[in-house]
Design goal:
By secondary structure, this protein is mainly beta. It is 9% helix and 57% strand.
């Protein structure tokens, strides 16, 4: 029974960490110089694996500040998830209920730097700029600062560091960045690498995980100046875990499809709603659905 619990918990943890690391449509949209964005994102994830059910309800406050580096636009990011996890494990002897108290997750810091088609622009220049192809480089580092207890099956903190690196690429069809008919085609190859957990759940003394590779894509379009929508897709593979150097054979391959709706409530306040679900997974009898709601204040 312990092996079954560990396998379900590991698979659930991979899904949860992947959902929190996703960026979403227009995450790397060009910003004017010296823009500040404070956002609050709610992620509500349900994962079902072989009759077991896991829920994650997480709020993530974050702060983003646009900067100029070598004449190109960039930004710095910091944030930290807060929330709780719960689960109902299906075992041979019955259902085991699991739940964590509200706690903090792992602090993350990150940055983005434009490489092509990303000039640093004043607000006036931004309004007149004719976009096109853009290429950026981005990274996000998760630090082992979150709540963790090796005696619990579920933890919001990972007790390890991880680093996600990506190459956001987009093509923008518009006369200016504020064109009411603006359309984007976005693709982002990424990789996430993980440090070791020296105090894992169960009898092992060390757990590790192979890198997760993936490709995230979005097609977005404005419908006037205050509304936009997107079709979203993410493909991920890899992430096999090992305990004390012994591979578990649990590498995952997942395809997720979804949609996003963005609304500008005022010139400085925006709301974004997105939903996605797994349409293919190599994990038998598994499913995952995620709803996200994000409010952002820009100044």
């Amino acid at each position: 029974m312990l092996i079954r619990i560990m396998a379900a918990a590991i698979a659930s943890a991979l899904t949860i960490s992947g959902a929190l690391a996703q960026d979403g449509a227009r995450a790397y949209h060009l910003l004017p110089q010296d823009t500040h964005i404070i956002s609050l994102s709610g992620t509500f994830l349900r994962t079902e694996i072989d009759g077991s059910v896991f829920d994650a309800n997480v709020l993530t406050p974050s702060y983003r500040h646009s900067i100029e580096l070598f004449g190109n636009a960039g930004s710095l990011l910091i944030g930290m998830p807060l929330g709780g996890l719960s689960g109902a494990l299906n075992t041979r002897v019955g259902t085991i209920e699991l739940e964590t108290d509200p706690a903090q997750g792992d602090l993350f810091i990150g940055g983005v730097l434009g490489l092509l088609g990303s000039p640093s622009l004043s607000p006036a220049e931004f309004a007149q700029y004719k976009p096109g192809a853009r290429v950026s480089v981005a990274a996000r580092l998760f630090l082992p600062t979150g709540d963790y207890d090796s005696s619990r099956v579920l933890n919001l903190g990972g007790n390890r560091w991880s680093l996600q690196a990506s190459l956001p690429i987009s093509y923008v069809l518009a006369d200016t960045m504020i064109d009411p008919d603006l359309t984007t085609f976005e693709i982002m190859p990424f990789v996430q690498i993980f440090g070791d957990n020296a105090d894992p759940f169960g009898p092992a003394s060390l757990s590790s995980q192979d890198p997760v590779f993936g490709l995230e894509g979005h097609i977005t379009r404005n419908f006037g100046r205050n509304l936009w929508a997107a079709l979203d897709a993410t493909y991920e593979f890899g992430g096999e875990t090992s305990t004390d150097g012994v591979a578990r054979g649990d590498a995952q391959e997942v395809l997720t499809l979804g949609a996003t709706l963005g609304v500008s409530l005022t010139s400085s306040v925006a709301l974004r709603l997105s939903y996605d679900e797994v349409v293919y997974s190599n994990v038998p009898e598994s499913d995952a659905r995620t709803f996200r709601a994000t409010s952002a204040l820009r100044f």
